[in-house]
UniProtKB/TrEMBL annotation:
Gene Ontology molecular-function annotations: FMN binding; riboflavin reductase (NADPH) activity
Family, as annotated: Belongs to the non-flavoprotein flavin reductase family.
Keyword Signal: no
Family matches, as SUPFAM superfamilies: FMN-binding split barrel (SSF50475)
Region (Disordered): 1-22
Gene3D superfamilies membership: Electron Transport, Fmn-binding Protein, Chain A
Protein name: Flavin reductase
Upper taxonomic lineage: Bacteria, Bacillati, Actinomycetota, Actinomycetes, Mycobacteriales
Keywords from the named record: Oxidoreductase
Amino acid sequence: MAPPATTGTRDDPGGRGNRRRPMIITIPDRQPRGSRLTVGEVDDLRRLSARIDCGADALDGPSNWRRDGDHLWVSIRALRSQCGEKDQDWHGRFDAMIDFATRHGWVDDHGHVRAHIDQDPAPVDSAGGGPVGAAVDEEMADLADLSVDHRDIRDMFALVPTGVLAMAAWSGDRPAGMAVSSFATVSIDPPLLSAHIRAESSTWPELASASTIGVSVLAADQHSVARRLSASDTAGRFHGTPYTVTPSGAVLLGGAVLWLETELADSVTAGDHLIAVLRIRRSAHSDRAPLLFHRSSFCELAAPS
């Protein structure tokens, strides 16, 4: 498969549509009489990506597309018809995408929208395999500049499942704590863990001033515990949750997967978050399954088949 051809319509002329994938055109590698382009994805009208399943020299043929140097021109009429029946809102967003391309000179007098063809030869696997990256071209063809929309960025990170930590310490006459779903192991020697906390967190200053911080990796049946620890009502975060306080003041929650008694070794500001580096002093664990956070929802590991 040759590298993808992509139009310049990468901005958001059609408004806030589905960001999962761009609109994708596939050009067949064989072009018998009457062959047509196909459209595999039709929801996101902010970007338009053409995938070419053949070498660029084979692109001459049907009137639905034509080659012009290092560009491909695709019929807007054929493109719309291949998307099937859509509602008025979809057609409005489609028109907005084409209007955007027209303003930038990416639509010709014959009603074709332009896509660039990258003709650089693919690198070859020295171990004897096929062209490097050939197997993933199809999934990576929609790479684009990162959106500045915060919701889109959160959705992107939400694709990666994580565990959930309860970070807690004794503060005055009560426990203080919060749930954290962004963390990482940092070092084995010394044993270090990083937790990534919103810079505006009102709970973090209490934890940062504690001599030790308890870290409990929540179990699969602790959805409600995670929700309470994430609630804005800090007074009710530990309601109904069993916990213990170590002699050093770390608060550890019952029923968890892993318990760590830690102390703050360092903290670094990174964008809108703080990276807290925690040195692990003591630990214990159970055989429970962990709670996962994926696509902004709590879930658990599937049982092995």
